[in-house]
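[Solved] Which block belongs to which protein?

Original post:
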Amino acid sequence: MATLQSPGVSVTVIDESIYAPSGSGTVPLIVTATRQNKLNEQGELASGTLPEQGDSLTLVTSRNDLVSRFGKPQFKVNNGTVIHGDETNEYGLHAAWRVLNQTNQAYILNANIDLEQLEPMINEPTKPVASGTHWFDISRSNFGLFMYNTTTSAWEEAEVDIINSMESVQQVNGVAQPKDTIGVNGDFAAVTVQTPMVVYEKVGGTWIMLGAEPVPAVTSSSLHIPAFQHVVLMVLVP
């Protein structure tokens, strides 16, 4: 207690604060999103950015460990100026970098997305090719209508007239076919005034739809049909 030298007021402050003992430190969890298949400073693939590591929890113990696993944080830059707020900026990774300046542990949960896919492209994006799609080498392929010559045992390309005018067709059972006054026997014509397109051959002065001719019975196991004088294909012949 203070000793007064003259009349006055004596004030005593007693500190009765109670403090809880400090517990073990909390390890932060940081959710990030980065470009996939990044390179670290050693020029190696950053393991944490591999697609198969997406949505996996990783414990890092230092800044060096962080950039080795996930590469350096990348930000969109235009003429030397960082574009803040760009959706491709790796803010989560930068937050982890800052945290590891104060602590020696952090959990990183890197989302299974590729920020590189958010970059604009000059070429129009396309969806994946449908299953079962076939690719042909058009530089070594022939397209059109071919007739098999049983004498030479070879496919021969046939000329096809395109009929795209209603004045040149007649309706037969609701199907447009060339008028009989057009062409000569042996000619081929494709009628395009209706869908699907139909191809005809002129036989005996009449246009006959390909595939509509009577098919002789097949008795040979080798499928050799001597009765055929020609067979017509509407497919690609490599």
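(Second protein starts here: sequence line, then its structure tokens.)
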Amino acid sequence: MRCLALLRQHLRDVNNMNGSEKPYVEDFAQALQSEIMRQVRDVYSPVVIDHWQNPRNWGIMGDADGYGKIAGPCDDTMEISIKIRDGKIVKCTWDTDGCGTTIACASIASEIAVGKTIAEARKINQQVMLEYCGGLPKENEHCALLAANTLQSAIDDYLAKAAKNNELLAQSSQN
């Protein structure tokens, strides 16, 4: 609510402003940004804010071993790609058209997954994500679910490809 009050006051002030008062606009923008960040810090953990402002592993691999893409209940879409070596996830990248919380959750999921075996990564669910995030507001918990489910979809894709490759290998060795 404080941001809205600041914006209303600013709009009144801008209507009365002449050219020499332009630095006031910059001061207002700084004050508004500071107020927004104060409100964000009241709601989100430092981990979520850090991953939102400094996302890790953003982008989709062209040579992924597994790929998943899911649309969430709020119409955010998330993609996750994974690279597997010796049964472990060695690289996990993502992309989303979602909000800051969705960005943070995708970034967090990518960091949690790297270094895990497939069996360990299978345990990454919404609850694991929420714990790592330090909790999320109720209205944003679906972002953690979207990240966990998209990671699981990428793992499913990898396992399906691996099963098909194993089947092809078995057939070729019989011939």
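Accepted answer:
You had them paired correctly. Confirming on the second one: The chain has a mean pLDDT of 88.
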